[in-house]
Design goal:
Layout (H helix, E strand, L loop, with lengths): L5 E7 L7 E5 L2 E7 L4 H22 L7 H15 L8 E5 L7 E4 L4 E5 L7 H14 L7 H7 L5 H15 L17
Parallel strand pairs: 1-3, 4-6
Antiparallel strand pairs: 2-3, 5-6
Helix pairs in contact: 2-3, 3-5
């Protein structure tokens, strides 16, 4: 990834040793102690931008490379959270869906994930995959379904992320495949 368009450095005399960075929109803000020299500042800014970009890349979907990687990830998640019981025949990215983030057809064990999710953090895509994989075990959204889904430790967080993403984009999507998040069992 290329260096961001804007890097802002914030010096603080109260900051003694620690250097940190965060992204605000397209700007990377690097916090450094006030005593640092210009050369140390340049070195630390470059280092912190690299660290931040690596961290962001790790959080992005591991499945961005294509359908094969998406299927590999789904099999790994099935082993880890669903006792290896969910075995999809295909898992693939599809053109943006109008009303859903993803869908599953249990009859032929196919899973489709909306291209809209390609740039969300990997843990969100993992949740969507778990949700759809669970439909291979439990077709509806009953208590058994949600018991399986909630084996994934970030399930609630990912549902909130998707609700926020939907609201921010004005998409009006309520859940993964039309389910109402508030109607879920714990």
């Amino acid at each position: 990834m290329a260096q961001p368009a804007v890097v802002e450095v914030r010096r603080s005399d109260r900051r003694r040793r620690m250097v940190s960075a965060r992204r605000e929109g397209d700007t990377v803000i690097v916090f450094i102690p006030g005593w640092m020299s210009d050369s140390e500042e340049r070195r630390w800014v470059d280092e912190m931008v690299r660290r931040l970009e690596r961290s962001e890349a790790r959080r992005r979907s591991p499945a961005r490379k294509g359908d094969d990687e998406l299927r590999r990830r789904s099999m790994e998640l099935s082993r880890r959270y669903l006792d290896g019981r969910a075995e999809p025949s295909t898992v693939r990215w599809v053109a943006p869906m109008r009303t859903r983030w993803a869908s599953c057809t249990p009859a032929d064990a196919t899973i489709r994930i909306s291209d809209r999710l390609r740039d969300v953090p990997g843990w969100v895509v993992d949740y969507v995959l778990i949700h759809e994989l669970t439909h291979l075990l439990e077709p509806g959204h009953d208590d058994r379904f949600w018991t399986w889904v909630h084996r994934y430790p970030r399930a609630e967080r990912a549902m909130g992320y998707l609700e926020g993403l939907s609201a921010a984009a004005g998409l009006g999507l309520v859940g993964i495949d039309g389910d109402e998040p508030d109607a879920e069992a714990g």
